[in-house]
Amino acid sequence: MNRVDSFECDQCGACCVPFHVPVSEEDMRTEPRIAAVVQGRIPLPMRGTGGAYHYLANGTTEPCPFHENGGRCAIQETKPHACRIFEPGEYLCQWARGKAGLGPLHPMGSFSMFV
Ligand code: SF4
Ligand code: SF4
């Protein structure tokens, strides 16, 4: 049996700045404001496939356009899949917080897991 920490996102917004945020056609259908942002942008090439994909932020020169002052997401209820599966407390969350000058996200508790 393992003990696993559980984390709750504190909406700091640190992960909305330094990462690539890819969006799908489904994301654009769900949230038309995403489609409005990516419209007119040249999609980035998908390595090794010949395809291309749209993105909200490229992780280098521009933060996500839905990242509001104070860290809140302007489309919290309809944010893209990539954002919905981002795990609070995981390495990338903690890394982004450090890069933003924030302290680590602490676990709310822990639970037992049989492996
Ligand atoms: S960096 Fe972590 S705690 Fe901050 S908003 Fe992203 S997932 Fe939540
Ligand atoms: S859509 Fe929202 S949660 Fe996703 S990167 Fe942009 S501001 Fe952050």
Uncertain regions: pLDDT < 50 for 5+ in a row? none
Number-wise, the strands total: 5
H and E order:
EEHHEEHHE
Number of helices: 4
Alpha-beta classification: alpha+beta
How would you describe the overall organization of this protein?
This protein has helices at residues 25-30, 32-38, 81-84, 91-99, and strands spanning 2-6, 20-23, 44-45, 52-58, 109-113. It is an alpha+beta fold and 115 residues long. The chain has one domain. The strands form 2 sheets. The chain has a 3-stranded antiparallel beta sheet. A two-stranded antiparallel sheet has the order 1-5. The radius of gyration is 16 Å and the shape is globular. 19% of the residues are buried. The model has no long low-confidence stretch (mean pLDDT 90). Bound molecules: iron/sulfur cluster (2 copies). One iron/sulfur cluster is lined by residues 16, 21, 56, 64, 66-67, 73, 75, 79-80, 83.
List the SSEs and their pairings.
Elements: E1 2-6, E2 20-23, H1 25-30, H2 32-38, E3 44-45, E4 52-58, H3 81-84, H4 91-99, E5 109-113
Antiparallel strand pairs: 1-5, 2-4, 3-4
The structure holds iron/sulfur cluster (SF4) (2 copies).
Short description, anyone?
By secondary structure, the protein is α+β, with helices and mostly antiparallel strands. It has helices at residues 25-30, 32-38, 81-84, 91-99, and strands at 2-6, 20-23, 44-45, 52-58, 109-113. The mean pLDDT is 90.
List keywords for this structure.
115 residues; 4 helices; two-stranded antiparallel sheet; 23% helix; alpha+beta; 5 strands
